[in-house]
């Protein structure tokens, strides 16, 4: 699948998900290439249809894009709940477990998600897998003592690498933390892995989003399709 095809499917999924947003809602807006299409469509609906909603974003770059359309964005602590959260995902398995954080926004994404009444992921068909783990699992760690955390991950066989930017400097999250990517190839017991990682001192959060999503909108060559998580129905 070439990039143009992939982008077309991402755009389809984003436009489909935008239909779920109704005036008066508080909406969590995720981060990533598919969400950019979603925000473009919500901006169009605001300008052409008068859609009025309040957004809570999972990254500063989504906030800037949304505010460029005149969408009202508030801090998560200014609202008592979020009606609907729409975000992308790097991988989704058949049990509706996902890996997120390819864009280094996993901590804010998880905070917004757990405070949302209903969660939708928008992906292109290439993100659907049988078993998650081929996509490197992002883990957000604080910079102080980060090399010791990486050493501990190496000892456990997690194959960690510190994520670097184009200048060879550590990538920083919106909270100024580092991202360590675990090259696991497959994760057979994501719950056990999450338990191990989250209990490591120095780890802030991992990119395992387990059985949280209500539905996944998939951009497909034949048009968007929706997968509903039976455990959340």
TrEMBL record:
Active site: 109 (proton acceptor)
Metabolic or biological pathway: Carbohydrate degradation; pentose phosphate pathway; D-ribose 5-phosphate from D-ribulose 5-phosphate (non-oxidative stage): step 1/1
Record GO terms (molecular function): ribose-5-phosphate isomerase activity
EC number: 5.3.1.6
Keyword annotations: Isomerase
Record field: catalytic activity: aldehydo-D-ribose 5-phosphate = D-ribulose 5-phosphate
Keyword tRNA processing in annotation: no
InterPro entries: NagB/RpiA_transferase-like, Ribose5P_isomerase_typA_subgr, Ribose5P_isomerase_type_A
Gene3D superfamilies the UniProt entry points to: 3.30.70.260, 3.40.50.1360
Alphabetical GO biological process terms: D-ribose metabolic process; pentose-phosphate shunt, non-oxidative branch
One Gene Ontology term, aspect cellular component: cytosol
Name of one Pfam family that matches: Rib_5-P_isom_A
Keyword Membrane tagged: no
Positions with a binding annotation for substrate: 31-34, 87-90, 100-103, 127
Subunit structure: Homodimer.
Biological role stated in the UniProt entry: Catalyzes the reversible conversion of ribose-5-phosphate to ribulose 5-phosphate.
Family the entry assigns: Belongs to the ribose 5-phosphate isomerase family.
Protein name according to UniProt: Ribose-5-phosphate isomerase A
Species assigned in the record: Bifidobacterium anseris
Lineage of origin: Bacteria, Bacillati, Actinomycetota, Actinomycetes, Bifidobacteriales
């Amino acid at each position: 699948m070439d990039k143009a095809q992939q982008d077309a499917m991402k755009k389809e999924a984003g436009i489909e998900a935008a239909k779920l947003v109704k005036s008066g809602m508080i909406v969590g807006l995720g981060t990533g290439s598919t969400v950019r299409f979603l925000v473009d469509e919500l901006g169009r609906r605001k300008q052409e249809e008068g859609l009025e909603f309040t957004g809570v974003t999972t990254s500063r770059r989504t906030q800037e894009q949304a505010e460029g359309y005149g969408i009202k964005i508030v801090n998560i602590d200014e609202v008592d709940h979020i009606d609907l959260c729409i975000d992308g995902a790097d991988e989704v398995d058949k049990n509706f477990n996902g890996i997120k954080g390819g864009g280094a926004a996993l901590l804010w994404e998880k905070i917004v998600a757990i405070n949302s009444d209903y969660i939708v992921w928008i992906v292109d068909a290439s993100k659907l897998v049988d078993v998650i783990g081929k996509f490197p699992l992002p883990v957000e760690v604080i910079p102080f003592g980060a090399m010791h955390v990486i050493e501990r991950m190496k000892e456990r066989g997690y194959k960690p690498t510190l994520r670097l930017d184009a200048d060879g400097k550590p990538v920083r999250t919106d909270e100024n933390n580092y991202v360590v990517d675990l090259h696991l190839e497959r994760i057979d017991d994501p719950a056990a892995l999450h338990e191990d990682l989250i209990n490591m001192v120095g780890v802030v959060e991992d990119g395992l989003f387990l059985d949280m999503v209500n539905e996944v909108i998939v951009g497909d060559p034949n048009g968007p399709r929706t997968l509903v998580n039976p455990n959340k129905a």
